Amino acid sequence: MTDVETLTDRLRSGELRLHELEEHVDPETATTARRLFVAAETGADLGAVGEYGFDVVEAEANVENAIGAAQVPMGVAGPVTINVGDRSDTEEGTGSDGGAATGEYYLPMATTEGALVASVNRGLSVIRAAGGATARVVKSGMTRAPAFRVDGVAEAAATVEWVERNLGALREAAESTTSHGELLGVEPYVVGDSVFLRFIYDTKDAMGMNMATIATEAACELIESETPASLVALSGNLCSDKKPAAINAVEGRGRSVTADVVVPGGLVADRLHTTPAAIAEANTRKNLIGSARAASLGFNAHAANVVAATFLATGQDEAQVVEGANAITTMDVRESANGPDDLYASVSLASLEVGTVGGGTRLPTQAAALELLGLDGGGDPPGTNADALAEVIAVGALAGELSLLAALASNHLASAHAELGR
Question: What is the pTM of this model?
Answer without folding.
Answer: 0.93
